[in-house]
From TrEMBL:
Belongs to the sigma-70 factor family. ECF subfamily. The keyword Protein biosynthesis does not apply. This is RNA polymerase sigma-70 factor, ECF subfamily. One of its GO terms (biological process) is DNA-templated transcription initiation. Transmembrane segments: none annotated. It comes from the Bacteria. GO terms for molecular function: DNA binding; sigma factor activity. Pfam families: Sigma70_r2 (PF04542), Sigma70_r4_2 (PF08281). It comes from Paracoccus seriniphilus. Residues 36-98 form the RNA polymerase sigma-70 region domain. Residues 126-175 form the RNA polymerase sigma factor 70 region 4 type domain.
Amino acid sequence: MKNGGKAGQDWSHLMRLAIAGDQRAYQELLTAMTPVLRGLIRARAGGMDMSWCEDVVQETLLAIHLKRATWDSDQPLRPWVYAIARHKLVDAFRRRGRSVHVPVEDFAETLQAEPEPDSFEKRDADVLIARLPERDSALLRCLAVEERGNEECGARLGLSAGALRVALHRALQRLARLRQEGEL
């Protein structure tokens, strides 16, 4: 996939492999996806600072990770990813008190930004997750940072599949509350 890869195969193929358990494919997908999302969000940010844009990129990547099982693998991945990015961008503007309309068409044909190292990703995730209660922190580290599957994380934390979903939902709500209260 270096240097653009095959446009028809790119992200969709990698996501199918990742969902099947191929961690290497998942890492390659995230590595390819991050600079594209960063360029897309920066282009639509309307003068917002780099750290604000990076927060939106991280929120988008986390949402993609957490919702990856909802993607219809018979459909191309890019429109699904761009829809998530659009929603996260609109949410971020709303939190800042700005009303914004970002047409879906703007995300349909976007040129990829040049890949660049993502120096903020791990540090930011660690800082955000560390502010949560221990169980929430352990759950999010397992799922999002370590990229483990639901089954493995559930076993590690002693949670059934249903309890894991409930705990994840609550952890994300706490994270959102901290963010809204300005603690993150």
